[in-house]
Amino acid sequence: MRKVGFHRLKNGMILYYQPDPGVHLAGVGVRAGSIHDPPDKRGMAHYVEHCVSRRSARFPDGRKVDLLFRKYMGGPDDDINIRTDKVSTFYGSDHLLYRPHALKVLGVMASFVNARERRVDDDGAKKEFPRVHNEYCLRGIDFMEVFLDDLMHETMYGENPARNRVDCHLEDLRTFTLEDVRRFLRRHYTPPNTFVIIL
After folding, report:
1. Are 30 and 165 contacting, i.e. CB atoms less than 8 angstroms apart?
2. Which tens digits make up the pLDDT trace of 6-15?
């Protein structure tokens, strides 16, 4: 097994890397998962992931970004492998076949996370509302494994944020504003809170 390298950049960002020609994983992660949701805004990390993954200053055309995702990262169910979990959000993919594809995807994902390049606006936030709602219905309440995991965490933890489900609670989702999204980004999407993986 090859050793994974670790390097902390001057701005605090962490780089994990492994020179292995047989593996192509590239992405940018942020320590911002459902445990970081504000108490009255459960599901905010997941919603922010949606709002951020639309376009950026370097990639301003959302349709081209979407096509790039489908070309390099899509699956049969249009799953583009951007994930939010309990502790983090990861923008990237672990099944890219060629190094140039991995580097191209890394550039797009890095532009979403970079404060100077990301673009989050009211129109995008409104368009992501039904998509997040749809994911809640498809994966949150119809997928038994996720449903039971959420119930177990809510039962085990009374006040601990580990009880938060990753998908938005619908009553909270309806209250999210663009300023809530921007506040979450300012607090969590910072270089010391970010990591890059290149294998």
Report:
1. no
2. 899 999 999 9
